[in-house]
Amino acid sequence: MLDRTIPFYNTILRCDRYLNAEPALQNGYEFRMYQSGDEQKWAQLEYEIGDFDSAEEAEQYFISTYCSNKTLDVAKRCVFAVNEKNEIVGSCIAWKDLRGDELVASLHWLVVSTQHQGKGIGKALCQKVMQIFLEKDEFPVYIHTQPWSYKAILLYIRQGFKIQKTDTFSQYENQFDLAMNTLKKVLPENHYEELMYNIE
Question: Along the 200 residues of the chain, how does pLDDT read in single tens digits?
Fold first, then answer.
């Protein structure tokens, strides 16, 4: 479970060139794209890990943000990992946000059910979404995250992302210094040094 006692500071990452890696899930799991009705299952997953105060709030967010968008097709951009029972155990979304007056690619909501973490599902979902961006020639790709997602931040930089000192997108204020000071307190020294090598 995420440690949400860690302070929240806007942390911005950007990937200019993805080192194409073939996403692979362990036996018993497979990818599938969004289908009508999946917003309820996505909402339940997000609620269970604490990203929303209720499943209803999460579902409304998904519908208003993704299903109501006339420019982007959620069925081609929202990836799920499912188990043998076709239960959704993870998700990631290849979306876009404004940066000034232009739309830029942005990776949204990488999430894995707590019961299925530690099996490489998050990494595979990230790689699958990055392949979507690659196929659509939509680089650079941005991510907004926060220090309590430090495990995800390490995953992202290992996929080619760099922590941004000043760059940002959407409405986010880049809080680089506050975020890095927080990460220094919660990460082992070798992992913090890995982050320091991936700043621009």
Answer: 577 789 999 999 999 998 778 899 999 999 999 999 999 999 999 999 999 999 999 999 999 999 999 899 999 999 999 999 999 999 999 999 999 999 999 999 999 999 999 999 999 999 999 999 999 999 999 999 999 999 999 999 999 999 999 999 999 999 999 999 999 999 999 999 999 999 99
For 147, 155, 186, the CA distances from 178, given in Å and listed in that order, are 9, 20, 13
DSSP 8-state class, residue 197: T
b/e burial code for range 121-148 (CB count within 10 A of at least 16 → b): bbbbbbbbbbbbbbeeeebbbbbbbbbb
Query: Which run of H or E residues covers position 132?
Result: helix 121-135
Q: Reduced to 3 states, what is the DSSP secondary structure of residue 146?
A: coil
Q: 189: Cβ–Cβ under 8 A, 6 or more apart, which residues?
A: none
Helices 176-186 and 150-158 cross at an angle (nearest 10°) of 100
- Please give the C-alpha separations between residue 143 and each of 82, 110, 178, 197, in angstroms, as whole numbers: 24, 10, 17, 18
b/e map 36-45, b = 16+ CB within 10 Å: eebbebbbeb
